[in-house]
Every structure is written in C-alpha cells, then in structure tokens.
Design goal:
There is one protein chain. This protein has 428 residues and is mostly beta strands. Helices cover 15% and strands 46% of the residues. It contains four helices and 18 strands. Strands 1-2-3-4-5-6-7-8-9-10-11-14-15-16-17-18 form a 16-stranded antiparallel sheet.
C-alpha cells in the first residue's frame, strides 16, 4: 500500500533536518567567526594608544622622569633648596649651591632656607664617601663629613609633655660638627660600624618680635644648654639591618643592596645606635644615648596595598650632675613623628613613638595613606608609660614613582587643630 502523501512529506523533512543541521551549524559557526575576526581587524585598524590627561601627563613628566628630583637635588650648580635641616623639621625654601664629582663621592652643599620671617636656616655641609683606597675589600667602607648650621626657631615651649603653649619662645641655634665613620658590610643587607667626632652648639637670643626669647622665659637650671657654648666629643657604634624592597621589586641593583628604596612595601629595617657624649668644656653635658628604630612593611594584594609599622625610641642615660643639652634632645611633633603637633612641640631627654600607616596605590604615580602616630617624651626612662602617649591620626597623599613619596601631603588630626603638612619622602 502506498504511503500517504502527508506521511511522505514528513519523512522527507525529517531526513533533510537530520542531514542539514550539522551543515547549517557549521555555516553559522563560520559566520560568527568571520564576524568576530572582522570586528577585531576593525578595532586594530582604528585603535590608538591611550594618552594621559593633563594632570597625569604633568605627573609623568615631573616624577616619572625625575625632573622634580633633579631640580631639587642636582649633582652640581645652583638650585632651589627646600628642606630645613634637622629631624622632623618642616620645609623652607631658598637658594642653595652644590658641587660634587661624577659619582657623588665628594659633595659640598651650602644653602639658605626660610619658612617664615623668623624661621630660617643657613647651612654648609661637606661629605666624602668611600674614602678608603680601592684596593681594600668592598665590604669595608669609611666616610667623612663636616657641617655648620645656624637656625632660628620659634617653637620652644619647655621640656616634657606638660610644656605650656603660653611659654612659647624663640631662639637661635648655631651648631657645627666633624665626623668620621668606618664600617664593615657583613652581608649585603646588614652592616656594623663605629663613628667618632666632635660637635659644638650654642643657643642665642631669638629675634622674633612676636615672641620673647627663650632666655627671658626659662632659666639655665630649667633648660640645660642655654648657658654658653658646648663642645662635645661623640663616639658611637651602630648596627643597620636593611632588607626592605618593593612588591614587585623596584631596585635598580641586586636585591638587598645598599641603595634606598623610594617606596618600600615589603621587608624591614632595624637600626641600633649607641653613642657616648663627653663634655670638653664645662663637664656638665656628658651622657649616653641609645636609639632603636624598628620598621616593618607587610604587603598584600600583590603589593598594591601594605601596612607599614614603626617603633622608635631614643633613651638617654646621665650620671649625677650631668645633663643632655636641650637641642640634642629628641622631639615629637613635625613632619615625621607626631604629625598632628607643631614642629618640635614636645622635647625631652627620652622619646618613645609608635607609628602605623596603611598605604595603597592609586595609580603608578600617586598613592594614599591612612596613618596613626603615638608619641611621648620624658625626662627619665622610667617615666615613659603607656598612659603617656599622645595620639594623632590622619590621611595623606604621596606623589612619586612606584610607591615613592617625592612630595608628601598629610592632613593630621588629634591636636588642637587640623594640620596640613608638606614633606619629601615617606615619614618612615
């Protein structure tokens, strides 16, 4: 019996479907591939390299090509000096001149910087690095340095954490030194050595019309070092363990070399310095000083985020009848330690500081930070306590290549008023 017509048509359609489906699918696949290839070709023909915007272009030129660094710290010639001398000091601006040989082994620098009418500094420094003959082992190193400085300060309020703002006074400080340092690189990442030198200092009356002189507010019994000139010999021993690096590594020489890291995000640095000072004039200012500076950097998220920690202590030890001149005492307050307080706000023979920063990359030339500083000073080591800390906190912006801080802005809170600080390099 012949198959009904409708059944025959159905059977023929099923056969065509079974045979044609793979062919149709293959044709559709080839069509999609050709369309994707054509789209990629079109994008490749019309693609243009990404061009940075105006601000990003300026940052790339200024910091990526190191124009700012070379303008503010050239090898030789006249340049714009920007930093007032002294640890934790602020920024001043003024002319400076430098001469050095090609590899900066012998460097002479002189400059004048002013932060305000009554806050200025005149300095001269001569350094000779690697003065030993070349035939000696590279592990041995020796440096010589000579320096002179004269500064005007308007931030002295007395000693201790209880010093009052109402006692703010001005003074001039003149200092000079000559030092020789010799050491041994036991490993590429740590070295030991010794220093021997002599330094002088004297505090004179301030010339700030707005403030009294420190000699009119305090007596020589209250503030050691106000009376006359001091001449001290200094003998010191030091240990420096430095295995900081960036993640990914940004060192320009073998890892764990002696070159500074612009923006460390991993590793740590541990410094120990023990110095003994002997008074050569009045036999009043002999003391010993132990400095411990411990830093650790913990990276995460492939190094684009990191936690930086620091513990700093400066401990002074004196015999009966001996004192530490106030201008050689450590201070809290300024651009590096105790950032929420005025420069040199708290000063005394002993210092203890704890610092923490959360650093994060915004782009290759810009990074941010959230920080906490806790610091205290005291006349005796046993007077340091957990309850004596003054804490400040804030946020910051750093401009510099690969996590560095060629220029640093910090907005600090926790003291009497918010403070905006400008500095060079990381706080630690």
């Amino acid at each position: 019996m012949p198959m009904p017509r409708v059944h025959a048509q159905t059977a023929i359609g099923l056969c065509l479907l079974l045979v044609g489906s793979p062919l149709c699918a293959a044709a559709a696949q080839r069509t999609r591939e050709s369309l994707a290839t054509a789209e990629r070709t079109r994008k490749a023909d019309t693609a243009r390299p990404a061009r940075p915007g105006g601000l990003e272009s300026w940052l790339l030129m200024a910091f990526g090509d190191r124009y700012v660094e070379r303008a503010l710290s050239p090898r030789r010639g006249l340049f714009l000096g920007t930093t007032l001398p002294g640890p934790n000091g602020g920024i001043g601006i003024g002319p400076a001149w430098r001469f050095s040989d090609l590899d900066r082994r012998r460097v002479a620098t002189a400059g004048l910087a002013a932060a305000s009418r009554y806050h200025w500094a005149a300095t001269a420094l001569f350094e000779m690095r690697n003065v030993l003959p070349a035939r000696l082992p590279d592990r041995v190193f020796a440096d010589l340095s000579l320096g002179f400085g004269k500064r005007e300060f308007d931030q002295f309020r007395g000693l201790g954490m209880d010093s009052a703002d109402g006692n703010r006074a001005a003074f001039q400080l003149t200092q000079s030194f000559a030092r020789a340092r010799v050491g041994w690189r036991a490993r590429p990442w740590w070295h030991v050595g010794a220093e021997l030198g002599i330094e002088t200092g004297s505090a004179a009356r301030g010339h700030d019309d707005r403030l009294p002189s420190v000699h009119d507010v305090f007596t020589t019994a209250e503030v050691p070092g106000l009376a006359g000139r001091t001449t001290l010999t200094r003998a010191a021993a030091f240990l420096d363990v430095d295995y900081r690096d960036s993640t990914p590594s940004t060192r320009t020489a073998p890892r764990l070399d002696r070159l500074p890291v612009a923006g460390a995000s991993s590793g740590g640095r541990y410094q120990v310095i023990f110095a003994a000072f002997q008074d050569r004039r009045s036999n009043r200012y002999g003391f010993r000083q132990l400095t411990l500076d411990l830093q650790q950097h913990v990276p995460f998220l492939h190094g684009h985020r990191g936690l930086s920690l620091r513990a700093l202590s400066v401990l002074s030890f004196t015999s009966a009848g001996q004192h530490v001149p106030f201008y050689l005492q450590p201070a809290a307050g300024g651009t590096r330690v105790g950032r929420g307080f005025d420069t040199f706000r708290f000063r005394d023979a002993n210092l203890l500081a704890l610092q923490a920063e959360y650093r994060y990359r915004i782009n290759p030339l810009m990074s941010g930070a959230v920080f906490v500083d806790a610091a205290q000073v005291a006349g005796g080591v046993r007077a340091l306590s957990w309850s004596g800390f003054r804490t400040t906190y804030g946020v910051g912006l750093r401009l510099g290549d690969r996590g560095g801080a060629a220029l640093r802005f910090d907005l600090a809170f926790g003291a009497n008023r918010p403070r905006l600080l400008v500095g060079f390099g990381h706080a630690f």
